[in-house]
């Protein structure tokens, strides 16, 4: 296609080189800096593609020019004087001798922050002026990276034989774990749509419809509180589902797509496929979390039996976990005091430890409570060597002991500088329990996705202790960040009914809550499985950000407010009447 000449620019700011010297060119963009050298004024002009230096000899021409004014200029490309060459930018050897300039957009208010220092500004101020914040080249580049990553993911999925299909945004409310965003219906009084928490039901229906491999870059909506790795409101995931597929088939696709994407957009080392599969219960024991950071080599060991015959009141009746830290015995007293302070800060009552000397003897206040048998157990289980320190975490509740041990492991990894910052370490967490006990009600609840296939099928549901049943459910984790959950889906009506029955839902409730799935499974449903890696979290890892809002173009703030547009906002009484709502 032939495009007509552009009246604002013949070249982008970042593309001019020595090859353009003596050419007449036109560029457009934002005024980045102005430097008056007494009769000669230098202006850096910035657009999305880079910066070029302009030279003005007419002071009147730039009299009312200020930073961030939008201009178009025409002039001749010339070589810079050798002493003014800037090797840090691609255009650093040339400049434009300006002959004419037109102001296209003026700045009428003072800037709320310096564009190149916007990331140092209060977050709400940044988000209120997000259109300025996004001009910061660092922030701008993250959004361009986002675009490139999403394009890459689409191409990769198509190469693997997946078909992109969009699913509805207005759907029905369903119990999927988080609160729904509700949308009132004007035509159906007293009834509501819901924004989808995920395309879960639709992608399963696509499998029943005979589509073999589906994917989409899917928006998901959950009314959840913000966290560093979770944006309130809306997020995006690479949603995919496969017919006639097992857990291992899904893993193979995830390994291919994630390895290729991280290798394309990063220079860091990537753990080779196949990624390790760690059972859920093993992950909690060994790492204290189901989102382990495998860059940290420290591991947690259960040493409860080492203290079973010890006369140590603090550990009586407790689950005791230990962490062996090689070479830590030489650390200063301050190191141990700081670790104790951290333990108290996270809610622990204390942090026991002792050091191992060259004779494999223990130095520390806990040693006197140990029996010879207990010392032997610790030496073997802790794999202790001279110069090591072994830390102890104890609590009467096993789950709490595991959680605290995980936090102490992470903190020790950071303070001992054991984390390999130059790598991405992936793993799958598998064999999640199908059910868990609700702490408040005591009833049996689904632990994760209620549509997962139970291991052992109908027989396990009919005869086994519900809390012993495992699901074909899995997560993929990278550097301690959960990228995705997934599952082999439950596609057999009898298994589905029994699974929900154990969680307290009757067949009639299943019919009414999930009519499409219930009905479709009676018309020949293939086995199917899938997962949905979070795109925002992938980008967090790629740019090395801990705050997910840094990789989203227009995020809500931590309080679930859009301070740029003013959402959520009041609506008129007329709007409320139209959708049959009265505010309490």
Instruction: Tell me the strand order in the biggest sheet.
Output: 6-9-10-24-23-22-19-12
Query: What is the mean pLDDT?
Result: 93
Shape label? globular
**What's the count of strands?**
24
Sheet-strand content, in percent, reads 15-25%
Rg calculated over all Cα atoms: 30 Å
Account of the protein in words:
- The longest helix is centred in the first third of the chain and has 23 residues, at 137-159.
- Helix 3 crosses helix 14 (535-543), helix 6 packs across helix 9 (398-415) and helix 10 runs parallel beside helix 11 (493-502).
- The protein has helices at residues 123-128, 130-133, 137-159, 200-208, 247-265, 280-287, 333-345, 372-381, 398-415, 457-463, 493-502, 507-513, 515-520, 535-543, 573-578, and strands spanning 24-36, 41-47, 50-56, 70-79, 94-105, 163-164, 182-184, 192-194, 213-222, 233-243, 269-270, 277-279, 300-302, 319-325, 352-356, 362-363, 389-395, 423-424, 426-430, 435-437, 444-446, 473-478, 481-488, 528-531.
- An 8-stranded mixed beta sheet has the order 6-9-10-24-23-22-19-12, with helices on both faces.
- It is 27% helix and 24% strand.
- Among the domains are: 18-105, OB fold (Dihydrolipoamide Acetyltransferase, E2P) (Beta Barrel), CATH 2.40.50.140; 296-419, GAD-like domain (Gyrase A, domain 2), CATH 3.30.1360.30.
- The chain is of the alpha+beta class.
- It is globular.
List keywords for this structure.
alpha+beta, Gyrase A, domain 2, eight-stranded mixed beta sheet, globular, 584 residues, OB fold (Dihydrolipoamide Acetyltransferase, E2P)
């Amino acid at each position: 296609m032939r495009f007509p000449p552009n009246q604002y620019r013949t070249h982008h700011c970042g593309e001019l080189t020595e090859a353009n010297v003596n050419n007449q060119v036109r560029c457009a963009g934002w005024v980045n800096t102005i430097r008056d050298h007494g009769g000669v004024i230098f202006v850096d002009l910035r657009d999305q593609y880079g910066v070029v230096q302009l030279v003005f000899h007419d002071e009147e021409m730039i009299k009312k020019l200020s930073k961030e004014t939008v201009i178009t200029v025409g002039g001749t490309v010339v070589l810079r004087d050798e002493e003014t060459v800037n090797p840090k930018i691609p255009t650093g050897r040339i400049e434009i001798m300006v002959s004419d300039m037109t102001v296209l957009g003026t700045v009428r208010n003072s800037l709320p922050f310096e564009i190149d220092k916007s990331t140092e500004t209060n977050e709400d101020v940044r988000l209120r002026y997000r259109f300025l914040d996004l001009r910061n080249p660092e922030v701008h580049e993250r959004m361009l990276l986002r675009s490139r990553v999403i394009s890459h993911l689409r191409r990769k999925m198509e190469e693997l034989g997946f078909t992109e299909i969009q699913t509805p945004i207005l759907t029905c409310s369903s119990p999927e774990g988080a609160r729904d965003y509700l949308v009132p219906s004007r035509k159906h009084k007293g009834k509501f749509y819901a924004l989808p928490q995920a395309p879960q039901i639709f992608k399963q229906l696509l499998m029943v419809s005979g589509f073999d491999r589906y994917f989409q870059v899917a928006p998901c909506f959950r009314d959840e509180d913000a966290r560093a790795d979770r944006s309130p409101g809306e997020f995006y995931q690479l949603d995919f589902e496969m017919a006639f597929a097992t857990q291992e088939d899904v893993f193979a696709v995830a390994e291919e797509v994630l390895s290729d994407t991280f290798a394309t957009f990063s220079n860091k080392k990537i753990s080779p496929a196949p990624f390790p599969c760690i059972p859920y219960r093993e992950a909690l024991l060994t790492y204290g979390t189901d989102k382990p950071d495998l860059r940290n080599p420290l591991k947690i060991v259960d040493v409860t039996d080492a203290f079973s015959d010890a006369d140590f009141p603090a550990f009586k009746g407790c689950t005791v976990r230990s962490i062996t830290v090689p070479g830590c015995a030489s650390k200063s007293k301050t190191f141990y005091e700081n670790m104790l302070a951290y333990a108290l800060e996270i809610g622990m009552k204390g942090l026991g430890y002792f050091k191992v000397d060259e004779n494999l003897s223990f130095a520390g206040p806990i040693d006197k409570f140990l029996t010879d048998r207990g010392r032997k157990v610790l030496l073997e289980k802790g794999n202790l060597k001279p110069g090591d320190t072994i830390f102890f975490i104890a609590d009467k509740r096993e789950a709490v002991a595991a959680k605290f041990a995980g936090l102490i492991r992470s903190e020790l990894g950071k303070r001992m500088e054991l984390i390999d910052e130059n790598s991405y370490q992936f793993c799958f967490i598998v064999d999640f329990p199908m059910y868990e006990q609700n702490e408040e009600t005591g009833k049996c609840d689904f632990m994760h996705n209620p549509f997962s296939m139970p291991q052992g099928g109908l027989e396990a549901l009919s005869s086994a202790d519900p809390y012993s049943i495992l699901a074909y459910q899995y997560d993929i984790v990278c550097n301690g960040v959960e990228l995705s959950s997934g599952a082999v889906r439950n596609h057999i009506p009898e298994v589905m009914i029994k699974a929900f029955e154990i969680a307290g839902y009757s067949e009639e409730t299943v019919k009414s809550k999930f009519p499409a799935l219930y009905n479709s499974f009676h018309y020949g449903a293939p086995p199917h499985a899938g997962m949905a890696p979070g795109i925002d979290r992938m980008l967090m890892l790629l740019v090395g950000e801990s705050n997910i809002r840094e990789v989203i173009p227009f995020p809500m703030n931590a309080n679930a407010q859009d301070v740029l547009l003013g959402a959520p906002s009041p609506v008129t009484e007329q709007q409320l009447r139209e959708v049959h709502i009265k505010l309490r």
